Structures are given as C-alpha cells and as structure tokens.
Amino acid sequence: MSGRQDGSPMNERRARISREISERTGITEALIERLVRRFYDRVRADPVLGPIFAERITHWEPHLQQMFAFWSSVALLTGRYHGRPMPKHAPLPVSAEHFDRWLTLFEETARELCTPEAAAHFAERARNIAQSLEMGVAQHRGILLAPGERLGDGAILSPEPATR
Ligand code: HEM
C-alpha cells in the first residue's frame, strides 16, 4: 500500500477526479462502507453464496476493509486498492448461477441505499468485473468463453437465441 497523499500533481488530479465523480453520483466513502457491509450481510445469509464465503473467510473485518478500498478504487478511482482479485476467484467452485446471484444481491442492496444514478454506477462496474472474473474461472478450468457464453457446472452455457 502506498497510501501517501502528498500534494503532487498526480495526487491532486486524482483527488479532483474522485471529487467530481462523488459530486455527480452522490457516492462517498461512507456510502461505500454502508453498501459493502449490508451486501456482505446478505451474502453470508444466502444459501448459494454463504457457504462458499464461510469456508474461506473466518475474519470478516479485514475482508470488509479490503472491499471498502476496492470499491473506492473502482467507483471513485481513488487508487486505494492494490490487490489482485483474479487469482483469488479463479479456483473457486463457482459458475454462472453464483455470479448472477452475487450481482442480484449487490444490485438490490445498491438500489436500496443509493440514488438511482449511484446504483447504476456501481452496477455497471460490478457487471463488467463479474464477467471478467467468470471468464477467469472458466480459463482456470481450461474453458475459453466466447462473448455472451456463460460458465455452467464444468461446461459452457450457450447464449440464448435472440427472441424477436
Ligand atoms: C461468484 C461470485 C463470487 C464469490 C463466490 C466470491 C468469493 C470471494 C472470496 C471467498 C473471497 C476471499 C478470497 C480470499 O481471501 O482467499 C473474495 C475476495 C474478493 N472478491 Fe469476490 N467473489 C465473487 C464475486 C466477486 C465480484 C463480482 C467482485 C467484484 C465486483 C469480487 C471482488 C472481490 C475482491 C476485490 C476480493 C478481495 C481480493 C483480494 O485482494 O484479496 N468478487 N471473493
């Protein structure tokens, strides 16, 4: 973690960008903290996702702190997060249904706590990251997903044919 907040032009520029996003969307560090805490309360109570987390996370507070930094970096471009999510997710026993459930709970929580604009800002980023994590999980199993394809239990789920 660098965590250094000197007055360099780079840091000033980053701070200005974060402030602009915050003013436009209403997203603040305090809102991120509320969102993350409530989201993981739901994840832990969820029959599909709860057991996967329970097996891997015993101390929740450090994970939550890491997720505050992650969402601060993703939503406000603060650069607070320095981890690498892909290696942590690639070996998980998950498929499309887990990512869909994760996104449903996350978006529900965001809609409850945020303005529509902030909820959309979070949801768009969450979907993109979830998609790339799902591709990473697939690749870890030797499966290359084409655009629109989803990861089934060990197999590929083909995209639905377009309905007209
Ligand atoms: C199938 C759905 C998901 C499951 C079951 C899952 C599970 C987990 C678990 C168990 C960890 C802790 C890993 C460890 O410390 O060993 C973790 C960490 C993390 N997850 Fe997920 N996750 C899911 C989806 C997502 C999505 C969609 C995002 C982002 C939008 C995300 C972001 C993160 C981040 C940033 C970390 C911290 C990684 C680090 O720096 O250590 N996860 N996840």
From TrEMBL:
The record ties this protein, via CDD domains, to: TrHb3_P
Per UniProt, the keywords (alphabetical) are: Heme, Iron, Metal-binding, Transport
Q: Does the keyword RNA-binding apply?
A: no
**InterPro entries according to UniProt:** Globin-like_sf (IPR009050), Globin/Proto (IPR012292), Hemoglobin_trunc (IPR001486)
Transmembrane residue ranges: none
According to the lineage, what is the superkingdom? Bacteria
Q: Does the keyword Nuclease apply?
A: no
State the protein's name: Group III truncated hemoglobin
From the broadest rank down, the organism's phylogenetic lineage runs: Bacteria, Pseudomonadati, Pseudomonadota, Alphaproteobacteria, Hyphomicrobiales
